[in-house]
Amino acid sequence: MDIMTALKTRRSVRNFKEKDVENEKIMEMIDAARLAPSGNNLQPVEYIIVKDSERRKRLSQIAAFGDFIKTAPLCIVVISKITEHDIEDGSAATENILLAAHGQGLSSCWVAGYKKSYSFEVEEFLNIPDDYRLISILPIGYSDSSPEVANKRKISDVLHEESF
Ligand SMILES: Cc1cc2nc3c(=O)[nH]c(=O)nc-3n(C[C@H](O)[C@H](O)[C@H](O)COP(=O)(O)O)c2cc1C
Questions:
Q1: What domain range includes position 85?
Q2: Whose CA is nearest to atom 13 of ligand 1?
Q3: Does some domain include residue 153?
Q4: Residue 132 in this model has a pLDDT that exceeds 90
Q5: How far apart are CA 27 and CA 45, in angstroms?
Q6: Mutate to test the pocket of ligand 1, among 13, 67, 111, 136 (most ligand atoms within 8 A of CB)
């Protein structure tokens, strides 16, 4: 799949089949993530794979608006060492995972991790060290639904020329 097709056809998916995600596909997503740009090339972003159903269930209980985490066979939790650009670096890696998932026939939905009331609880549950912060929680699997295309602003509504 070429990049523009991937960008134009990716959707947030919140329903998944029970089918497991193959290990090679997981490694391909982590490979895509680690290649993301990062400020000063510090590469502070790391990943926690959560497959265990009880642990996914617990994550789905902690993360408000992440109830569907328990229905995905795999969850990749993106964390970043606290640096000047940790949020940007973690977000770039997160988007690479979403696109690498889509490119391999998988689906996901970004569940917020940063600055949420539950961020600390997730960090505690996953033993994330104090000098790292939670960026995103990504339930991933084979889609069991065809979500509608989210309404997006038109190019003419978002584009400014030369100044705002
Ligand atoms: C930073 C961020 C946080 C998000 N958090 C959640 C969330 O907690 N739960 C959820 O169901 N969707 C979450 N989403 C997904 C958005 O709702 C989704 O991207 C948006 O509706 C557009 O749909 P699309 O991804 O299909 O284009 C989040 C997306 C982003 C970028």
A1: 13-158
A2: 111
A3: yes
A4: yes
A5: 15
A6: 111
| Counts for the chain of helices (H) and strands (E), in that order | 6, 5
pLDDT at 37: 98
Residue whose CA lies nearest to ligand 1 atom number 7: 111
Residue percentage of the chain with pLDDT more than 70: 100
Number of domains the chain contains: 1
Q: What is the pTM of this model?
A: 0.98
CA 10 from chain centre, in angstroms, equals: 13
Question: At CB < 8 A and 24+ separation, what contacts does 153-162 make?
Answer: none
What does the pLDDT look like over 26-55, one tens digit per residue?
999 999 999 999 999 999 999 999 999 999
